[in-house]
Amino acid sequence: MWENRVMVSVEEMRLSSEGPTSTPVMMWAIISGCLKKRTARLISVAMPIISPTSMKVVSIDEPLFLRLKKNFTLYKSISGLNNKHLKYSSCFVVSMNFEKLFPVESSKVLLDAAFRRAREKSGQKKLTGGWLEIIKKKESIKLDVIQETIVSKFDNILTQFPQTEALPEFYIKLMKLTLDFGSMKKSLGAVNWAAQRLRMLHREYVRKINKAADPVQMRNISKEFYGRAASTLKQIDENLKYLEECRRTMKKYPDVREMFTICIYGFPNVGKTTLLNKLASTKAKTAAYAFTTISINAGYMKAGGTTIQVLDLPGTLARPEKMNNIELQAELVLKEMAQVVVFVFDLSSTSGYSIEKQAQLLKKIEYKKPLIYVSKTDLPEGKPDKSFPYRYYSFEELKEELEKLSKDAVK
Description:
Elements: E1 3-9, H1 10-17, E2 26-33, E3 39-46, E4 58-61, H2 62-71, E5 75-77, E6 91-93, H3 107-124, H4 131-160, H5 169-178, H6 181-211, H7 215-235, H8 237-250, E7 261-266, H9 272-280, E8 297-303, E9 306-314, H10 325-336, E10 340-346, H11 355-364, E11 371-375, H12 395-409
Helix pairs in contact: 3-4, 4-6, 4-7, 5-10, 6-7, 6-8
């Protein structure tokens, strides 16, 4: 029996079974197929963010298995070994979409929203009972709304920020490269502390209001709660600001999947993105100026029955301490993910990089044994002559070689 590892997001699961939600939490599952019975079995489900011990076993029939494939937007990976005896033999991964991380608001914004909502809610409800009982209920409602508004925001932060247990190793390394990983974890811990403290304060002050005997005492108790809640949020304001910085950085992370990967490498404006568009039939942006690649573009090409990930990476000769975030990400992708590297040479000089500089960049990645592709050969000055010292591929030759290498990788 071949077991297939499937990663789906709780967001997608809820979308298909419970209605829309905006929480991009990751969940791991293992699906196995049966050789004789036309069934598939969901062996285990682990949700480390929601509940570290949440495990369950269910059996699913073929139609449900197919619906899982469809509803969870799963992407077939070349790492799923082909087994001719097993109908459902394949490996799927879902994309790590950091763009869905919502902004982290400051303590002032959170407090203003909570107090405004508390005033609105306390005036909307029609309360019954004696005048003293009505005041008591109004003050309790204000405390309830303030606590619920702020704590729900904190819970969303803790839920939406990726946990290391749910991330592929590549993304953990990327976060450590581009963020102060320790400060991010410390900031998340501070948010968790504040959420717990607000829950505790809420219980304490609701009890005090219920025991109060006159309206002035009740209002004073409420004011004391407001002050302590505001003080709690101000204590973590710097943590909230740093988490927002982290979110803005992570939002630009590439959507890289753990599958057979080809990296197109070279200086900006040498024709990498054009090659990506031709190989993967994508529509990534191109323009006639340097640094067109402001992010890591991704596309997918078919080779037989498999899907290959193709990434367009901006190359640089800068030292690591001089690299920008995109260049740092590109170097990590090149090192960690690339099974095949295609180096793009531009001999036309329209990119602004000399042949000598491009040769220097090529030397930097010699350890990857790159395939060389010459771009812009439609220009008279872009065609290589006999003095060009490297073995290079035409587009048709390159595509054929990439398909061959991908097939060899899954044998």
